[in-house]
Amino acid sequence: MHGYVEPCSPFFIEDAHTICEECPFDHSNLKSCAEGPGARGYTFKCRTRGHSAPLEVWCKPRGREFPRELVLGGVVGGVVLLAGVFLWWKRRGAR
User: What's the predicted TM-score (pTM) here?
Assistant: First the structure.
């Protein structure tokens, strides 16, 4: 890389244990990032200055994040399975 390199970047801060995202920083609305990523569990790490566009980097620990569709599918599948077992048990007990 040539020239100035902004140290406040998810590329430099993120590691195997954290996930980071950028938030455009607006000096007129200081709460914008706290209401965005901050409301989703991210914490403030740093703010760009000087040569870069005003951004803040917010990070949170990496966790087991499952897609909503996968979780919903698991719940629906579990309910169907339990209903099937219940009906089988009721039919078996009725004899």
Answer: 0.59
